[in-house]
Recover the amino acids of this structure.
């Protein structure tokens, strides 16, 4: 089982839709969780951290479910500019090296 | 935050040759990494660049193939040696700040013929 697994998609949604991605992780000792966004032919950039209590930033909501070992990202009122690949990133307490998921591709169409 | 630049941004090379990629950060950082990303794949960590000592390589990557230098806290180089078409990829420099956020350089797109 891979350390961090994501559905590669693509998720193809119309503008204004709500879309959610999940990411599962295998190491129960994982301590830090993040969502990164990567636009086509660009470098990854931090979208948001995921805290135990959840995290909301405008149209984006990230949640952590430790019992089931997954994190989620919810995007409300999708915009065309949200089209990108969303990378799940997990770091265990015993390592300073985070593990990147393969990414979930989102396409928002008019 | 950290602003990272990489040179070259892209290159086309002949097999058997070597390419050195430079990474410059606008501030002193402790943690600096080199990643590879192949099309449609996740980021794969090559090594952690350690200032003043040998880099720490991940499984599957060796110093003879990917020598790394880190002379100070703002600069590092990665060399891809004796290249083959399988080395065609995007190579990304990354740093981590005290807040655990990772910043990435714009990447170097390498095509080996």
């Amino acid at each position: 089982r891979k350390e961090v697994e994501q559905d590669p998609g693509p998720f193809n949604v119309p503008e204004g839709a709500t879309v959610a991605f999940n990411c599962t992780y295998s190491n129960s000792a994982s301590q830090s969780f993040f969502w990164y966004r990567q636009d086509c032919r660009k470098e990854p950039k931090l979208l948001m951290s995921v805290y135990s209590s959840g995290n909301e930033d405008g149209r984006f909501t990230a949640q952590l479910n430790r019992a089931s070992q997954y994190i989620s990202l919810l995007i409300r009122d999708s915009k065309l500019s949200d089209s990108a690949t969303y990378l799940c990133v997990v770091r265990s307490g015993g390592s300073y090296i985070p593990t990147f998921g393969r990414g979930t591709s989102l396409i928002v169409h008019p | 935050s950290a602003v990272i630049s990489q040179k070259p941004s892209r290159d086309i090379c002949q097999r058997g040759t070597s390419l050195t990629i430079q990474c410059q950060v606008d501030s002193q950082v402790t943690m600096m990494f080199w990643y590879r990303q192949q099309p449609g794949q996740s980021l794969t960590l090559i090594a952690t660049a350690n200032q003043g000592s040998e880099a720490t390589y991940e499984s599957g990557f060796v110093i003879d193939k990917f020598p790394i230098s880190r002379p100070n806290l703002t600069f590092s180089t990665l060399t891809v040696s004796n290249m083959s078409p399988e080395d065609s990829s995007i190579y990304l420099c990354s740093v981590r700040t005290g807040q655990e956020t990772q910043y990435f350089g714009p990447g170097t797109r390498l095509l080996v013929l």
Observations:
- DSSP finds no helices and eleven strands in chain B.
- The mean pLDDT of chain B is 94.
